[in-house]
Structure formats: structure tokens, C-alpha cells
Specification:
Blueprint lengths: L1 H25 L4 E2 L5 E7 L2 E8 L3 E3 L16 E3 L7 E2 L2 E3 L6 E3 L2 E9 L8 E9 L1 E3 L3 E15 L7 E14 L2 H6 L4 H18 L3 H5 L4 E2 L5 E2 L5 H6 L12 H5 L1 E13 L1 H62 L2 H14 L6 E2 L6 H6 L1 H10 L7 E2 L1
Antiparallel strand pairs: 1-7, 2-3, 2-8, 2-11, 4-5, 6-7, 9-10, 12-13, 13-16, 14-15, 17-18
Helix pairs in contact: 7-8
Length: about 375
């Protein structure tokens, strides 16, 4: 019985020896267990002491480690596993509190991720007290608001069209000491610099150009970027700031890996103004079209009148010539021509009397002519036009 109690007590002590450090590691007391791809700072009193990092295939250029390289900045993230692994089962010794402790800080960011039950990525705001500094690639959401483009609302307007641009900026940490202690908020600093560069890029392009700014893929599915794309412009910030200062990597220990444009949209006010301008253009265009149609109709009517006048003039000229030729020829045909010419001159109006002279001997010589005249009058009274 005593042996059973002894074995049970030993098992309890063994489990406690393993479990207690694990629980303390979760609470960051005595020891800590950083997540894969992250680093944590350990303070001695109120001053920085050292970093611990869990990142397979990488190690920190730790001044206290046997593989420290003096030609490289301290705490740079370098490829290759450390020569001396200071962890035990993933747990790193911190020290005896309160003299040694893990450094916690408030970190605010917007993550571009896919929540549960969602099929697409969305922007998720975060605000947490954390000891972690993400070392591996991580996507952060950023929005450039009210940036002026190179487009105006109208041809005669000098007001530039503002847009919102949504971006996903993927950062990785190349030196956790610079990221944590060289500035108050490394992410805010990095996004601020990228925001300024994005505004310069937007200001040099029209809204139509920006609306087509999307990530393109080649036949193999890999992302491709033009030399003048926003991604290439912002990635240059890794090495040099626009004002000549050192880039992101040297100044705050952060590398910008990728820039993805999610959307380019008009601001609500720009949508309203652009809608008003479009409406005005449409109304003006309709009025111009109506005026053009009316002018074309008048031109066509004038052309038809001109053609009709020309046709009537030609007909009259032909009648005069034919009559003249018949009169010149003399004989009965001349008399008939004179008769019809008199009718034409009367405009064919009713109640008009046409008097013409004819010698009796001329009529008696050609009764057929008289009959012809009678027949052409269609039963009218001799010498009258109805």
C-alpha cells in the first residue's frame, strides 16, 4: 500500500515538474513559449535584456551567442538554426520575477483575413496587449483615403477627383530590436510612409488608370508587376525613403514583401459630383444632338425646295421653248400653241376669259384644228376656261 502511494506521489511530482513550467510559460512567468514565427523581448528591471525567438530555420544575431557576427547589426534575423539552442521543449528561461520579465506592449493593427463562416477575406481590426513581435510574413490592411488623382470632374474644372484605395501590405520583421525600440509603433510608421508614397503615385495617374490597377497573373499563376506599378514604387521604400533617409529595413527593422491593391473607389462626395457632372454632360449632349437634327432637317427641306424650284423652272423653260418654236414654225400648230400658252398664263384659274384672235379664213381652212381645240377644252365653251 505504501509503495502504491509512493509511486502515485512520484507520478504527481513528475507531472507537476512538466506541467508547472508549461503553465508558467503560458503566463510568461519564469519561462516563456513564443509562437512559431514570433519573437519576445525580455527585460531586466525596466531595461531591455535580450530576445528569444521561435522561427524554424532562422536565428537571431544575439550578442551573447557563440555565433554572433560583429559585422551585422545586433538582433538581425539570419538564416539557419542557432548553434546553441537555449530552449527546452520549446520553453525559454526568462528569469526570476520581478527582476526579469517578458515585455508586453499595446499593438493595434488591421488584419486581412478570413473569419469563420466567411468565404472571402475582410479587414479585421485588432487591439491587443501582447508580448509578440511577428517575424514571418504577415498581411496588414491599410486604406489610403481622399487621395487626389490626376483627373478632374469636368474639362473646364480644376477640381481633382479624390479616391479611396485599399491595400494589403505584407511585412516581415528583419530586426525585432529596431522594430520594438527604435520607434513607438513600427506598423504605424511603416503604413504612414507607404501612405505618402501611394498618394504621390495616385496623384500622377487618372482615375481610369487607377481603376485598372489590379494584381495580374501570368500563365503559371504567379503575380506579375509592371516596373511603374504601385507595388514597385512602394517596395523601393525598403532601401531608401523619398527624402533620402535610410529605408524601412535599416531604420525600423521591417521589410515590405508585397503590396496588393484590393480596390480603388470614388469617395462618396466624388460620386455625387461626378454624377452631377455626368448628368450635365448628358443633357448638353442631348440638346446638341437635338439642335443638330433640327438644323439637318431644315437643310434637307431647303434642299428639297431648291430641287422643286429647279424642276419647275426647267419645266417652264421647256414649255416656253416649245411654244416659241411652234409659233416660229407658223401654221395651225402655232395657233394651238398660242391657245395653250394663254391657258397656262391664266394659271388655270376659274372664271377667267381668254380672248384670242383668229381670222375666219384660217379656221375654215382647217376645221380639224378647231375640232382639236374643242376636244382639248373637254367640252368647255368656246373662248372660255373653266
Amino acid at each position: 500500500m505504501h509503495s502504491g502511494l509512493t509511486i502515485g506521489l512520484l507520478l504527481f511530482i513528475a507531472v507537476a515538474v512538466l506541467l508547472i513550467p508549461y503553465l508558467l510559460g503560458l503566463m510568461k512567468i519564469f519561462d516563456t513559449m513564443p509562437q512559431e514565427g514570433t519573437a519576445e523581448a525580455i527585460k531586466k528591471g525596466n531595461k531591455f535584456h535580450r530576445f528569444v525567438m521561435a522561427y524554424e530555420g532562422h536565428h537571431l544575431n544575439d550578442p551573447g551567442a557563440p555565433d554572433y557576427d560583429e559585422n551585422i547589426d545586433a538582433w538581425e534575423v539570419l538564416p539557419g538554426n542557432p548553434v546553441e539552442d537555449r530552449s527546452v521543449l520549446g520553453m525559454y528561461w526568462v528569469g526570476i520575477p520581478p527582476w526579469y520579465k517578458v515585455d508586453w506592449y499595446q499593438f493595434r493593427w488591421t488584419e486581412w483575413a478570413q473569419p469563420q463562416l466567411n468565404t472571402t477575406n475582410v479587414a479585421i481590426p485588432r487591439d491587443e496587449l501582447t508580448p509578440l513581435i511577428k517575424i514571418n510574413d504577415f498581411p496588414y490592411y491599410a486604406k489610403v483615403e481622399n487621395a487626389k488623382t490626376n483627373s478632374t470632374f469636368a474639362e473646364d474644372s480644376g477640381e481633382l477627383i479624390p479616391v479611396h484605395m485599399e491595400l494589403v501590405l505584407t511585412f516581415r520583421c528583419t530586426n525585432p530590436y529596431k522594430a520594438r525600440y527604435s520607434n513607438e509603433d513600427w506598423l504605424a510608421s511603416a503604413i504612414s510612409v507607404c501612405d505618402g508614397e501611394a498618394r504621390n503615385y495616385i496623384g500622377e495617374r487618372t482615375y481610369e488608370d487607377l481603376a485598372s490597377e489590379r494584381d495580374k497573373k501570368d500563365a503559371s499563376g504567379h503575380l506579375t508587376k509592371g516596373e511603374d506599378s504601385l507595388s514597385m514604387c512602394i517596395l523601393d521604400l525598403n532601401y531608401r525613403m523619398p527624402d533620402g533617409r535610410p529605408g524601412l529595413m535599416d531604420s525600423i527593422g521591417i521589410e515590405l514583401v508585397r503590396v496588393n491593391v484590393i480596390s480603388v473607389s470614388l469617395t462618396p462626395e466624388a460620386e455625387r459630383q461626378l454624377g452631377d457632372a455626368t448628368t450635365k454632360k448628358y443633357v448638353a449632349r442631348r440638346q446638341a444632338d437635338a439642335a443638330e437634327i433640327e438644323a439637318d432637317g431644315r437643310a434637307r427641306a431647303a434642299a428639297k425646295d431648291a430641287i422643286a424650284t429647279r424642276t419647275a423652272a426647267d419645266a417652264e423653260a421647256y414649255r416656253i421653248k416649245t411654244t416659241s418654236d411652234a409659233i416660229k414654225a407658223g401654221g395651225p400648230q402655232a395657233m394651238v400653241a398660242k391657245y395653250y400658252d394663254s391657258i397656262a398664263a391664266s394659271n388655270g384659274g376659274p372664271g377667267k376669259t381668254i380672248i384670242y384672235g383668229m381670222r375666219p379664213e384660217d379656221v375654215s381652212k382647217d376645221t380639224a384644228l378647231f375640232a382639236a381645240i374643242e376636244g382639248n377644252e373637254h367640252g368647255s365653251t368656246k373662248g372660255e376656261s373653266k
